[in-house]
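Researcher: Next entry in the queue.
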Amino acid sequence: MTAIIKRELVSFFKNPIGWFVIAIYTFLSAILFTLFVIWQNTSYLGDYFGFWLFFVDMIVVGILSMRFFSEEKKNKTDQLLLTSPISLYQLVLGKFFGALIIFLTCTCVNFVYVLIIDIFGTVDYGCLLTNLIGTVLVLSSMIAIGLFVSALTESTIAAAAATIAILFFMFVIDFFAMFFPTWLADILMHGNIYAQFDDFTNGILNLPPVVYYLSVTVIFLFLAVRMIERRRWS
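Model: Structure for this entry, 234 residues:
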């Protein structure tokens, strides 16, 4: 698994798209930090880590999903991975942790923003900690979904579009829930991937959101393994 993680990191940072992804995240997050912290003359980070940064995360995960398995299929390098002396779980987890490390590298720019606040104001480190924990959890679930989608197709564009579409649907699922019977609407509303993040933005660390994100991560990683296994024997 370590070899897969190293392979993902080397491939990402040797490829111009890797630096493009980092640049996109830095540019968009800087705009959001300016709008919700500097212009509001506040040190509160909940609004910055909330709604709009969620969209940035969805876009970046969508771009990363192009590389997971779709690009491997397109370049015909997936057969090398499938015949390598590692289990499918190690392969998928290697891809997963590689992508998570890459994304966390992108989010390191947030520490620059924290430093700016610390110079000119007071940082609420409790709120910052819960937001960082929530960010890692939600990124894990998003990446797992992207891995599953990428395992379904060899089209990199389709993988990115489908990943963003699924994440967006989970973002606005409350709207569609109102058209279903009450019992089904209650179930669907629990699937709102953003609603689970509210506690973290408010500086609250609760067990249910943690369990939700971990469950989504595990389920979609398992589904990704099943799809890769199906391709191996097809």
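Model: The radius of gyration is 18 Å.
Researcher: Noted, moving on.
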